[in-house]
Amino acid sequence: MQSDLAGQLTDFGHRLLVRVYFEDTDFSGVVYHARYLHFLERGRSDYLRLKGIGHRELADGIHGEPMAFAVRHMEIDFLRPARIDDVLAVETRTILLGGARVILQQRILSDQTVLVEAKVKVAVISPEGKPRRMPDAVSAILSTDIAST
After folding, report:
1. Phi-psi map region of 129: left, alpha, beta (phi>0 left; psi -120 to 50 alpha)
2. How far apart (Å, rounded) are the C-alpha atoms in residues 25 and 14?
3. What are the catalytic residues?
4. What would the pLDDT profile of 73-114 be if each residue is shown by its tens digit?
5. Beta-carbon contacts of residue 39 (< 8 Å; ≥ 6 apart)
6. Degrees (nearest 5) of the Cα angle 77, 75, 106?
7. In what order do the strands lie in the sheet with 68-78?
8. Could you tell me the pTM of the whole model?
9. Which domains does the chain have, with CATH numbers?
10. What is the C-alpha to C-alpha distance for residues 142 and 70, in angstroms, rounded to an integer?
11. Is the Cβ–Cβ distance between 117 and 47 less than 8 Å?
C-alpha cells in the first residue's frame, strides 16, 4: 500500500501519479503555477522514500551522520496547462551527483504530453543548515539511477 501511495520506482527513477483538485487551480480551472512546485516536491520526496532514504532516515543519521536535502536552485519551464480533475504523472530522475549536491530532472505529464520540465539542484546540509558531503551510502543508492538513464 505504501509503495502505491508513494508512486513507483522505474527504470529511469520514479513516477508518481497526482490528481488535480479544485484547490490546485485558479478561477478558470487551470492549475496555478505555484502548485506545480508542490507536485514536484512530492515526486522528489517519494522518490527518496522508496529508495530507502526518506527525510526521517536522513535526519536520524541512518546512512551516516544526520543530514537533510535543501533545494538550492530550480529551473522550470511551464509548457502546457493542466486542468481540474486531470491525473498527472510526476517523473523524477537523478542526473548528477557531487560531493554535496544532487541534480534531479523532473517532468510533469498528462498522458504522454509534457506539461512542465524542471531541473532541481539540491544541496546536502547538516542539521544546523551548513553544507556537508553526502554520505557514501546515500550516494551509492542515488548513483544506481544515473547509470540507467
Report:
1. left
2. 25
3. 26
4. 999 999 999 999 999 999 999 999 998 999 999 999 999 999
5. 18, 88, 90, 108
6. 75
7. 8-9, 14-19, 87-97, 101-110, 113-125, 68-78
8. 0.92
9. 2-147 (3.10.129.10)
10. 16
11. no
